[in-house]
Amino acid sequence: MKGKRPLIIGITGGTGSGKSTVCKAIMENIPEENIAVLEQDAYYKDQGHLSMEERFKTNYDHPLAFDNKLLIKHIEDLSKMKPVEKPVYDYELHTRKTDQTITVTPKDIIIVEGIMILEDEELRDRLDIKIYVDTEDDIRILRRIQRDIKERGRTVDSVIEQYLNTVKPAHDQFIEPYKKYADIIMPEGGKNEVAIDIVISKIRTQLS
Ligand SMILES: Nc1ncnc2c1ncn2[C@@H]1O[C@H](COP(=O)(O)OP(=O)(O)O)[C@@H](O)[C@H]1O
Ligand SMILES: Nc1ccn([C@@H]2O[C@H](COP(=O)(O)O)[C@@H](O)[C@H]2O)c(=O)n1
Fold first, then answer.
1. Strand 95-104 relative to strand 84-90: parallel, antiparallel, unpaired?
2. Which residues bind ATP (predicted)?
3. Model confidence over 104-131: pLDDT tens digits?
4. Dihedral sign for Cα atoms in the order 39, 26, 33, 81
5. Separation of 65 CA from ligand 2 center, angstroms?
């Protein structure tokens, strides 16, 4: 890291839109020593003090479910060249792994990736480039069903119920309307080579 302030890139979009895929595509093209990611999901509030029954009732698609204060502090610390301890989230237990963190060291490029990073003004103001991955709702729910069953210990019924009760209404209230703040709207997500190349060029300019 050359000592100047890092370039902070926000990648947002609804669940299953392809945020992580875009992130991965960028990271594959930039040397590891230059780039770090803070996933907003890692900053879901710790719920270790709640029973499993209470954790099932939490709305994970409300801005209050996130500890954005900590996320903002970590962005600021990294900008001041201080390493941070990123929490590790457990989607099956719906809480942070208390015995685990990931040390993130300051890098020239910091990606902040998550569903509600544009909704919070304080967080939004810290992002130099804002990308919204725009994918149709029906594609997103199909991807979500597959992923949540394979990777997050869910059933088809639970994913559909959660989608209708909280995920979809939250998308319409807290995610989609904030698309207007994006600098780049990226249809096709990780498969949009033109848009990804533009972002990579911008990053390379910053690195040189
Ligand atoms: N453009 C795309 N075309 C086809 N499948 C995709 C595309 N983008 C993402 N996927 C797949 O959809 C799923 C969800 O993508 P992901 O990037 O994890 O979404 P998000 O991080 O927004 O929840 C993954 O299995 C991923 O491989
Ligand atoms: N305990 C939790 C925490 C979060 N979720 C869901 O994750 C979605 C955000 O992650 P993406 O990778 O899909 O962007 C969000 O829509 C929450 O509903 C969960 O189900 N359980």
1. antiparallel
2. 13-20
3. 999 999 999 999 999 999 999 999 999 9
4. negative
5. 10
Q: Which domains does the chain have, with CATH numbers?
A: 7-202 (3.40.50.300)
Check: complex ipTM more than 0.95: yes
Mutate to test the pocket of ligand 2, among 12, 60, 119, 163 (most ligand atoms within 8 A of CB): 60
The answer to whether the annotation marks 17 as part of a ligand binding site is yes
Any ligand 1 atom below 6 A from CB of 14: no
Mutate to test the pocket of ligand 1, among 11, 12, 21 (most ligand atoms within 8 A of CB): 21
Find out whether 132 and 18 touch, Cβ atoms under 8 Å.
Answer: no
List, in order, residues 6 or more apart from 85 with CB less than 8 Å away. Answer: 101, 102, 103, 104
101 known ligand binder: no
* 167 beta partners: none
Q: Is residue 12 a contact partner of residue 113, using CB atoms and an 8 Å limit?
A: yes
Among protein residues, the one whose CA lies closest to atom 11 of ligand 2: 15
Q: Which two three-digit tokens encode residue 78?
A: 């990294």
Query: 178-199: string of b/e by CB count within 10 Å (b at 16+)?
Result: bbebbebebeebbebeebbeeb
Q: The whole model's pTM is what?
A: 0.96
